[in-house]
Amino acid sequence: MSWIVLSYSLPSSPRSSPRVALWRRLRRLGAVSPTGSIHVLPEQEECMEALQWLAQEIRQAQGEALVMRVEQFEGLSDHQMIERFQQARSEEYNEIEDQLTALEQSLSNDPTQLQETLDKLRRRHNDIKRVDYFNAPAGERLAARLAAAQQSLAAGPALTLEIPAAVVAEYRQARWVTRPRPHVDRLACAWLIRRFINPNAVIRYALQPEPDEIAFDMSNAHFGHQGQFCAFETMIRAFQLNEPGLHPLAEIVHEIDLRDGQYAHPEVVGVDAILKGWLVANLSDAELEVHGIALFEGLYAMFSHRS
Fold this sequence. Notes:
Shape: elongated
Strand order of the largest sheet: 2-1-3
Number of helices: 10
């Protein structure tokens, strides 16, 4: 595989702050350093752009910088390099896990303060996850512990219901209906229908379903809120869809729709703002669906690529 490498030098200075600031920037990007003189990232467009901007800043500070694309390191295999990335992320995850352990031992203290601390740990986990290019196993373990800690802090015990199974083939020709002015949950369901059931499905927006229509996210719907699940989560479970990219997408939809603090993804704020912007712009139901499907398809592609 290919790698992006930054090699740089800064002029001698009585102040170490520029060097420290640059080191922190590289760490936030998730770069690893096989030697003290170079910093490596996997070959991705956003990584190349980030290092190019850093190189420009170094030159503006009268330093020297070179960004290179490297196919192979002498004496260091791709597998060994990947292990270095995973080890770096694991060390960062372990720092959070230690703090989480201390938090779990304090669950009898002030709930508000505990929630604030947990939120900080979840945000830090998300920051690391964004640059966990090779999915260090410690990240998934920590995510599960953070979710369990959030449930422990919830106002009451979560009610998990059995969702009746549905067969995709039996819904290929179905006509669908949901409430007008679709927002996050209904738009996500519409995307799921077109992505996994029938790309040409008829989806109608109305307050009352016709006798032959399959309703979702509305009163007495075939697929609606069940227990702690939003309609999108209900459909995923009913149709037994296990694609990895769906899991974080469902958590984002859940948080925007239910706002129960169960999940903390950095994308939540941006997606929520976009959806509200479309409503303020008074887009039609058809326009909301088109835009929503494009949005969720992009998010799904990103999360699938990460997985």
